[in-house]
Design brief:
Two copies of one chain form a homodimer.
Chain A: H1 13-20, H2 24-32, H3 39-52, H4 58-65, E1 70-75, H5 81-96, E2 100-105, H6 110-122, E3 127-130, H7 137-141, E4 147-150, E5 159-163, H8 165-178, E6 184-189, H9 197-211, E7 218-221, H10 227-240, E8 246-249, H11 252-264, E9 270-275, H12 278-283, E10 288-291, H13 294-310, E11 319-322, E12 325-327
Parallel strand pairs in A: 1-2, 1-3, 3-4, 4-5, 5-11, 6-7, 6-8, 8-9, 9-10
Antiparallel strand pairs in A: 10-12
The structure holds a DNA duplex (16 and 16 nucleotides).
Chain lengths: 330, 330
Amino acid sequence: MRRISIVTEKPKLEDVAKLAGVSPTTVSRVLNNRGAISDKTRRRVNNAIEQLNYHPNEIARSLFVSKTHFIGLIFPTTGHPFYGELVFQIESILSDKNYKVLICNTMDQAEKENKYLNMLLANQVDGMIVGAHNIGIETYQRAHLPIVAIDRKVSDTITVVSSDNYQGGRMAAEELLRQGRTKIIHINSVMQREALSSYQRRKGYEDVMTEHGLPFKTYTMDLPFDTEVKKQILSSILDKHPDLDGMFLGDDITAAIALSMVRKREKDIFIVGYDGTETITTCLPELTTIVQPIRSMAQLAVDLLLKEINDDFNDIKKNYVLPVTLKRGE
Amino acid sequence: MRRISIVTEKPKLEDVAKLAGVSPTTVSRVLNNRGAISDKTRRRVNNAIEQLNYHPNEIARSLFVSKTHFIGLIFPTTGHPFYGELVFQIESILSDKNYKVLICNTMDQAEKENKYLNMLLANQVDGMIVGAHNIGIETYQRAHLPIVAIDRKVSDTITVVSSDNYQGGRMAAEELLRQGRTKIIHINSVMQREALSSYQRRKGYEDVMTEHGLPFKTYTMDLPFDTEVKKQILSSILDKHPDLDGMFLGDDITAAIALSMVRKREKDIFIVGYDGTETITTCLPELTTIVQPIRSMAQLAVDLLLKEINDDFNDIKKNYVLPVTLKRGE
DNA sequence: ATGAAAGCGCTAACAG
DNA sequence: CTGTTAGCGCTTTCAT
């Protein structure tokens, strides 16, 4: 079967120029508000643009100016509320500043992270915000590109934005003590393996326990995105500690699983989670959790990134730590 | 303050060619595995590529071949678990096929949706998947671009993928009846205003009620992303119906809010939600809900989109409806 | 106030 | 098997 294609080719700047009876240069000037143009020709050009329903080709423009206004985002998965909300905030703020976002979900796989990094470089992104942590920071540095890391290990070669994980760990432990608990364990997931965010939280928890002369125990889970595995591990941990009365979980999803498991077993174990996303605090208001300031983290990360992009000679990398808050369960 | 820039410029294909002592064409051929190349030169070229740490500029390539391998995704917000998970799935599948994803969060604002649409067109995306519904479908059609809509109104000018919202509504109502409930209301949010997905769900619910000779009542909420407003509305609805024993909510987040509200009031109201995301079924396993097949929807949407992209003359638009399932609360 | 010409980095005829 | 040439759609000196 054949069909006669009536599809008019996408008009280009040259077509506009011809229709308006001017040079391409003039059209470009009208489009970018550059130089001086007589009102007459401006009108003629704008008419032609409208008649042809012309839209400038940003890709061609990007090639010429060697700036794409693309920002790459590398995160474990938007399917997790913390990253889903963080990515949403980052994208919203960037969009307001006329940047466009390429999204990459690594699922904590180093191989994917590497592939995405190369893809972003090949596509000439102006910068990246990275919340995945499965390949070394050096790999990113080789890119010689403005980069802001979220929750990555403190570094003086890259800008890092994080929330106060050490205080978060302390606050969680202190709240558990305040609730009269003493036999408290901590479970963190490997999701933030190299981030050290989980290390800091753990340290906060362990320090508080030590300061109060109490024993502590930290478990680390290996398959953070698989609910069934999480359940099994949690279950065996509960079996191993029949006298437990407090738990500090590294994230709210795991905390939620623990919560319903504890309820099912009719145990009196007080649970504190971590992240405090909109989703979880809305759906599970009874959960006590440490709230990360997602919105501020997004804002700061974007501000710093854009500053790096625009100030060529700024290579002072800093670590920014934002405060966390405790949200008591209802 | 001045600084001497030691930054070596990004190498280009020409640099590789010079270093390898061959023509740019040859380098291009090595990169794209096209034509016949002697092993000797291939090695020389590859060496040069490595020495210079050369990475091809995809933007330049895109311009030439007039294909970007960019896909635009327009959704309300990745901060909502349903869209967060859907976007994750879509991006993962597309990434496997070497497509890159530009993400757009409209927050249900028509103005943003329009801006994003134009941005995507200007950036020469090869296609789009649209789950936002605040501007008319005609606006999208004007783009003359492969597009797949998710949960949009049935249409014969655009491919639509959705789950079986009518059956979903029926299943929710039937489950409530099975639970011995008879005074059942339905609340849907305006989030899917024009999608008609919410209309279908409502119809399913109302049909079942009618078939059983029972009265029905449907409320529509106007500010779907604001938890506080939702609470107030839900609260006043509960006040208005003191004898209520069943509720069917248009999404799980709202259902979760209703659930904790009902618990607080110590009412015996059976609640059925909608969406069945990983996040919610994990965090709130006690919630009964209608599960949309997110993964299959993503897969189908991508398959159809890529087919449209690759088969130029295929303009048979179809509507694909995927089955939903009931997940009983634990 | 406007235009001609060159080129961003790449690829695809076409030639040899 | 390899190179020369032209050009994707745009912007920007440099003229006039």
